[in-house]
Structure formats: C-alpha cells, structure tokens
Specification:
Number of helices: 15
Mean pLDDT: 91
Low-confidence stretches: 410-435
Number of strands: 11
Order of helices and strands: EEHHEEHHHHHEHEEHHEEHHHHHEE
Shape: globular
Largest sheet: 6 strands, mixed
Distance between the termini: 29 Å
Strand content: 15-25%
Strand order of the largest sheet: 1-5-2-4-3-11
Helix content: 40-55%
Structural class: alpha+beta
Amino acid sequence: MPNGIRVAINPDPWVSGVALNLWYGVGSVHEVPGKTGFAHLFEHLMFSGSAQVGSGEHLGLIQAMGGSCNATTSFDRTNYFETVPLGGLDLALWLEAERLSSLLDRVDQVNVDTQREVVKEEKRQRYDNQPYGNAFPEIMKFLFPAEHRYAHMPIGSMEDLDQATLDDVHGFFHRHYNPGNLILTLSGAIDPDQGFELVNTYFGEIPGREVHGFSQSPLVSLEGIPRLELRGDVPQDLVYCCWLAPAIADDSNDPIGLGLSILADSMTSRLHTDLVRNNIADSVDTFDIGLAHGNTVIMATAACSESVSPQIVEDAMMTTWSRFCEQGPTDAELHRAKKAEDRDYLSELSSIENRADHISASWQLFSDPTEINRHLSIIHALTAEDIRQQFQTWLRPDNRAVVTYRRQSWFRVQASSTPILGSSQPLTLPNSIRV
C-alpha cells in the first residue's frame, strides 16, 4: 500500500470465516539496554483501548460475534490475530486500524502502570514460580554478550519497566507501530479484490513513517565448551546442549531442522533410541529457537533418569550427536523425516489461522510471502550430505555450550523405578509470550 503496509490475501472458499493476522516488525531485539520489555508491554497496551474503543472492548467485540482474538510477542516480532465470521471482517479491520492510528490517545500513566503490573504477574507465573522457568533466560544471557540484543527475554526487565517514563513508552510506539512495519494477511472466505479494498478502506489513510531498523553481525561459533550450572527446586536434573547457528532465513536452516527431527522427533529417533530406551534419560528433545538477526540458537535437551548423572547423560547425547555429524542420516531416516514434515506441515496449513501466520512469517523472515509454497519442495530436495555438511559446519560437539539444571540437594530421593512427581517432562522453552 502507499503508506507501506504489506498485504497478503489467501482465499479459501471451503471455510466460512476469515483469519486476520498482523505481524509488526518489533520484538525484544528492537529494544536497547536499560529500556527492555517495551515490545511485550505494548502487546498488552494494544488491548487497553484507543480513541474510540474502551479498555477491553476490542476483545469483547470480537468474542461477541463468535470470533477469537489474541497476540504474542517474541524476540523478533509482535503479532495480533483474530478469526471472525465473514460478516465481522469489517469490524475486525476497523478495530485494528483504530488502535494503530490512535492508541496513544489512551496510553496515559494510569494505563501504563496497570499493564506494567500485569506484565510483572505474568513474569512471576511463567518464569519466577515455575520449575525450570529461569532456564531459558539464563541460557540466553549465557550464550550472548551482555550488550547483545538477544541477551534479554521478551518479558523484559521489571526494573527497566519501573523506570520507564510515559515519553519513553510513547516514543517506542511511534518508532515501531508504523504502517511500514506491518504485514497484514487475510486467509479464508474472502475474495482478493474485496480483501485489498477493505484493507485500503480502513488502513489507507493512516500516514506512513520512517521504519527504524538495525543491523546485527553474526557471532562466531562457540569455542571451549563453556559451561553453566543452575540449581532449583525441580523434579529432576536437565542437560541443555546449545549451539549458535545462522539466522532462520539462512539456507542452512532447513537441513539443520530436518536433522534435528531425525535426532529427536519420534520414538525411533536416534536420541530417543540411545538415551530413553537405555534408561539414561526420561525424555529428549531438540529446538531451533528461530531467531532472525545474526544468529539463531539450537538446543538439545535431556531429562536425566533417576540416579543418572548429568555428565553421563551429556556424554551419551554427544556420542550419538558425534556419529550423526560424521556420518549424516541414513536413507531410511531421511525418507521418514521428509514424510513426517509433509504430514506435519500440511496438517498445520489446513487451519486458516496457521496459514495466515505462516504467510506473514514468510514475508517478515524471508522477504517472500510465497515461501510457504516452496517449503516442502526445498525439504524434498535435501540430501543426507546437505544435512551432514551443515551439522559439521555449525553443530559439532566441540562448538557447544552446556547448561545443567540440578535439583537442590534436599529434593533428591533414593533411586526408584517410579519417576518422582509423576512423569517429569522438561518444560518447552518459551520463545514467545501470549496474553
């Protein structure tokens, strides 16, 4: 659009509703030291009213028509999404345009103070008072230098938010909540021409402004196997092996992702076979945090079986990992992983909500909204050698960092065939925050 908004329409005549998905290119990576937590704070403030909408009315109006509405904040973006009946699309678009154009009419000190307390309570629930809740924040601080933009979490610093002035908050909105920083996707029972016309009707008169970007050079691979030990009141010891890899849009991302699924995604995966079936670990998993600027973080985690030390678990994990780096996957493993990706990806895209989100993500992260159509072709073209080369380049055992999360000594029990506190699965590491 002339004011900079990028708009994608995905018509689907087989559904009755429309998914509206907005990606703003602002996350915790766009914050500076001393002023963190603003991106997540605005996720809450955006539901607190604007010039013509009262606090909480946005969500109430969407739900009253039978729709759903929510938002998330991550390191690299904030997204807002609704699913509404076709007849409710005008209202949903008006509500989104209204808060983009006039949110600051309602952002006063009382509003900021109220939402700041909501954020603090969310931090207490998700990080401070949950087993392993502080693991991910500590890992990010450990992997990245203190001044690095990924060294702090999207939840932000409560001290920074306490010291934030109303001018600071208004300035953050002006810099980042900008038509030129917005991707808007509609997926569902909508004709493309009608969709573009509606978006222009409600957003077309919002003036565009300069987009404030930044550059972040990639960090080199980790060396010397740095180590960190955390302790807490948790049910079992956990081991995290971590690597720095190229950012998500790099060509290495797809072969690395497929290799990670071969290592841990199923009951026949290598790490499950070698660690879980041999009673070394109760569970294993692999993650790509999916960061967009400079580097991403790859993790392999294992929950130690009772009476098995973290060192034994780490050694067993790296034995399997080393063999995979040296040899790559077998033909059978590669075939199964590609078929699993077909199933999972197509199943996810059957939902208009997920499809709209994928299109917005493709445009934001790959500068190409049609990447969603090419993903499986890229996956099918990968060879075992492609995967082996990327693991050899970025994910060798000597490039890792290791974080162990140990139980407090009083929490330990005698060896038993029964897992303590039921099935003690490690928590999924959160890379986004949901209202």
